[in-house]
């Protein structure tokens, strides 16, 4: 990182095109001493003298840029980047061209560029640089090699590659822990990305420094084990960390790790107890020192725990508090000047805002709480950062779908719907006419609004765009490797398959609602061809295929697709539906499918057969929820068969009142 020790070592180096005079060596040593004392003004003065004597020495120019950055408390990041560009031009380096790095002497320049990208949360770009720098690890100076390894571990964790991080930790332990140079290791990132203390004094004992370094590696190993669900190993490491005499920031990081461990083990109440030991009155001060706010992390973690405990109201409360704390932390620094967007605050706080992650969590929680419009607003902000996450695009589409149709419970509320079956009665005696309510028959309403798909509003048109994005981001064919879905953990191949099935089901539904049965049929058939389909998705697939075929006037095909033999294996997986959504059990699911088959048979003219199926559905209503449309279809069939008296009896038996309203 752009830390003191790296710049010290470079300022005392003997690089350059000419030999170093005694005077220049004295200036370099004096600059080193002043830097270690934190006297950056004096250090810059010595480096200025060196620069005058060695105007073409890249190391001197680089060290001066670093020291001036520290002199301004790491707040003038924009100026530092300009100075680094000048250094690169002087060294004839193109920092964007990794193939241009052929000399170990220039690794520190690329390393500092990676540190900048890391704090700007451009982890993938930083990782590419560090992978190239790591190829020079053997001839590299020991102190820089340590920093390269630790930054590489951090970047692997940030890009959700804990296995690679564990391999790197094993390499570091094998190569560096037992050496004397272990005393030069930098500080722990968890709570302090950039160290502000002087470098390790030579008088510090080797054992103490080595133990401190091992403790830092334990922190990283614990984080890796949490990510890979190696919970027993993580528990052992945390026990060692928590019983060690560590700094406050390291202890705080360990407490959060312990709470995360309990969360992974399903001990939500215990995790809450651990989190309640976090001090919340030091959020702003800790953020200014480290770039991390304990208050933000506390409220966010509490929100996650209550979400998984099935308490969306409390989860929303904690997520809202986390967002407020995050705003307070970010606003604790003055707004940057125009054209200096990265300046005005220390580098390690530039990327300290957790707004995208918090908005993602808050949006998902609001969606589960049945507040799709508020959830949509939050997730729209999150998708600007996590636009490569197919799971997030699905959540946005679900917000649109829920806003369009919050639930379907009303269709299964027989007692309520039967009151609405009759719209009115006109005439009297033999001329009396019963007017049925046409709204009862409406299962879908098609959108006719002329609205752009690209406008981020909670509409079915925008849902269609979101689902299309989700499908494009999912792998074609069977998944064989994990899929990165930040800020959530990566999805394994089995989860990817389930996600794709869910996206296809939602796509078919949205296409039907938009009056596009051709696309709906395509999605529904693709859904049924997915491996390892859940019973719920299989049910939806059959229903959507049947409805799309009916809308395309392919009635015979619809009848075949709704054949009871096609769904004989739907026996489980329907006992835990989303709130307010039916069917809630297998018997009700079969009734819905039978009703749809009766509709198809009616359209094909097989009225007697359709009537028999409806009779079976009606007879089973004692143990299943029966949709009111069954009564409507029965009345329609009896009228077509010329059984007006039977139709009137059905109306009388299933209406509370036959009087005009």
Number of separate strands: 4
Per CATH, the superfamily of the domain at 422-653 is Tetratricopeptide repeat domain
* Separate helix tally: 30
Q: What ranges have pLDDT less than 50 throughout 5 or more consecutive residues? A: 1-17, 179-206
Q: In which range does the helix fraction lie?
A: 55-70%
Return the CATH topology of the domain at 422-653: Serine Threonine Protein Phosphatase 5, Tetratricopeptide repeat
Query: How much of the polypeptide forms β-strand, as a percent range?
Result: under 5%
CATH class of the domain at 422-653: Mainly Alpha
Report the average pLDDT across residues.
Answer: 83
Termini separation comes to 78 Å
Largest sheet: 2 strands, antiparallel
Structural class: mainly alpha
- Alpha carbon gyration radius: 33 Å
Tell me, what's the shape?
Answer: elongated
Q: Going across the biggest sheet, name each strand in turn.
A: 1-2
Could you state the oligomeric state of the chains shown?
single chain
Name the CATH architecture of the domain at 422-653: Alpha Horseshoe
Describe what you observe in this structure.
- The protein has 661 residues and is an all-alpha fold.
- Among the domains are: 278-385, Serine Threonine Protein Phosphatase 5, Tetratricopeptide repeat (Alpha Horseshoe); 422-653, Tetratricopeptide repeat domain (Serine Threonine Protein Phosphatase 5, Tetratricopeptide repeat), CATH 1.25.40.
- It has helices spanning 4-11, 22-37, 40-53, 58-71, 77-90, 107-119, 123-134, 142-158, 162-175, 206-227, 231-242, 248-264, 268-275, 283-290, 294-308, 312-330, 347-350, 355-368, 372-383, 390-404, 414-417, 460-473, 493-513, 517-528, 535-551, 555-561, 586-603, 607-619, 629-640, 644-653; strands spanning 422-426, 433-436, 483-485, 488-491.
- Strands 1-2 form a two-stranded antiparallel sheet.
- Strand 1 (422-426) and strand 2 form a beta hairpin.
- Helix 10 runs antiparallel to helix 11 (231-242), helix 16 (312-330) runs antiparallel to helix 18 and helix 19 (372-383) packs antiparallel against helix 20.
- The longest helix is centred in the N-terminal third of the chain and has 22 residues, at 206-227.
- The protein is elongated.
- Mean pLDDT is 83; it is low at 1-17 and 179-206.
């Amino acid at each position: 990182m752009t830390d003191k020790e790296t710049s010290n070592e470079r300022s005392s180096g003997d690089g350059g095109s000419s030999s170093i005079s005694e005077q220049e060596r004295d200036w370099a040593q004096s600059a080193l001493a002043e830097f270690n004392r934190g006297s950056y003004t004096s250090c810059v003065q010595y480096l200025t003298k060196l620069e005058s004597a060695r105007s073409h020495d890249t190391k001197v120019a680089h060290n001066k840029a670093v020291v001036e950055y520290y002199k301004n408390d790491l707040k003038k990041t924009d100026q530092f980047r300009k100075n680094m560009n000048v250094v690169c031009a002087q060294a004839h380096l193109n920092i964007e061209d990794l193939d241009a790095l052929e000399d170990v002497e220039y690794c520190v320049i690329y390393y500092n560029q990676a540190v900048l990208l890391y704090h700007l949360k451009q982890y993938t770009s930083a990782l590419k640089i560090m992978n190239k720098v790591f190829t020079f690890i053997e001839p590299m100076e020991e102190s820089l090699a340590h920093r390269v390894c630790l930054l590489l571990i951090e970047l692997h964790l940030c890009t959700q590659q804990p296995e690679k991080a564990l391999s790197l930790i094993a390499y570091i332990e094998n190569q560096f822990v037992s050496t004397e140079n272990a005393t030069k290791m930098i500080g722990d990132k968890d709570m302090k990305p950039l160290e502000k203390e002087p470098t390790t004094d030579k008088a510090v004992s080797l054992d103490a420094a080595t133990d401190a370094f091992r403790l830092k590696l334990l922190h990283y190993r614990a984080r890796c084990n949490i990510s890979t669900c190696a919970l027993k190993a993580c528990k052992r490491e945390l026990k060692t960390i928590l019983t060690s005499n560590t700094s406050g920031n390291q202890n705080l990081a360990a407490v959060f790790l312990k709470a995360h461990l309990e969360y992974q083990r399903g001990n939500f109440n215990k995790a809450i107890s651990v989190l309640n030991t976090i001090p919340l009155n030091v959020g702003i001060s800790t953020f200014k020192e480290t770039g991390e706010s304990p208050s933000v992390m506390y409220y966010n973690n509490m929100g996650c725990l209550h979400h998984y405990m099935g308490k969306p109201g409390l989860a929303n409360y904690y997520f809202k508090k986390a967002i407020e704390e995050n705003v307070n932390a970010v606003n604790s620094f003055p707004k940057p000047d125009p054209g200096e967007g990265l300046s005005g605050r220390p580098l390690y706080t530039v990327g300290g805002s957790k707004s995208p992650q918090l908005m993602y969590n808050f949006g998902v929680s609001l969606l589960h709480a049945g507040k799709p419009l508020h959830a949509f607003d939050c997730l729209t902000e999150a998708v600007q950062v996590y636009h490569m996450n197919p799971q997030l695009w699905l959540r946005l589409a679900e917000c649109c779908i829920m806003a369009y149709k919050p639930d379907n419970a009303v269709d299964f509320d027989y007692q309520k719907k039967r009151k609405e079956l009759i719209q009115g009665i006109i005439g009297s005696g033999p001329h009396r006419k019963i007017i049925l309510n046409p709204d009862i028959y409406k299962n879908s309403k098609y959108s006719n609004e002329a609205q752009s798909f690209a406008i981020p509003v909670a509409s079915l048109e925008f849902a269609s765009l979101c689902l299309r994005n989700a499908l494009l981001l999912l792998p074609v064919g069977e998944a064989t490797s994990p899929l990165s879905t930040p800020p959530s953990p990566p999805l394994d191949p089995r989860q990817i398959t389930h996600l794709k099935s869910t996206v296809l089901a939602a796509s078919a539904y949205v296409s039907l609602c938009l009056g596009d049965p051709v696309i709906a049929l395509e999605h529904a058939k693709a859904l049924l061809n997915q491996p390892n389909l859940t019973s719920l998705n299989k049910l939806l697939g059959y229903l959507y295929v049947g409805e799309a075929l009916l809308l395309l006037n392919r009635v015979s095909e619809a009848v075949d697709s709704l054949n009871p033999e096609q769904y004989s294996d739907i026996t489980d997986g329907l006992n835990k539906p989303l709130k307010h959504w039916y069917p809630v059990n297998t018997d009700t699911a079969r009734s819905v499918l039978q009703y749809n088959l009766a509709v198809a048979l009616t359209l094909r003219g097989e009225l007697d057969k359709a009537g028999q199926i409806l009779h079976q559905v009606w007879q089973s209503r004692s143990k299943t929820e029966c949709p009111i449309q069954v009564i409507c279809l029965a009345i329609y069939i009896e009228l077509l068969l010329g059984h007006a008296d039977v139709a009137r009896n059905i109306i009388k038996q299933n209406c509370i009142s036959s009087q005009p309203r």
